[in-house]
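Figure 2 data, in text form.
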Amino acid sequence: MSQSEASTRRIFICGSALRGQPDHGNLGNAQFIREASTQPLYRLHAAGNGWHPAIYPVETGGIAIPGEVYELTTEEFEYLAANEPPNMYPSNVVTEDGEVLTAFLYPRELVEQYQWEDISHLGGWAAYKARQTVTNNS
């Protein structure tokens, strides 16, 4: 493995850092690899009443979450991690094709404590935000 390969990692983005979303700049110059979805092993909620996504794994009733794969340097990853909302933590997720990537998840216990809206059925974070914009502009 070359030095450059050793100092990068692939991550799965499925929230406000997606292309076209307000925090996309937090990825710096990260290289976009491809669009992807997770295996149907997760639930997606609107934490903080729509401030950011909250994703967590489930044993049953999971959905495939759409997102994007990026390759980040160590510095880009550290910057992204430092700018994630409170309580989010890096963990492995599995894409539809079996690739294991790092994503930022959210504690299920907090989602349940605050009873944040389950938006799993809406087609991902970008679809949820687009729907919110239409609703707010109506």
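Caption note: The chain has one domain: 3-124.
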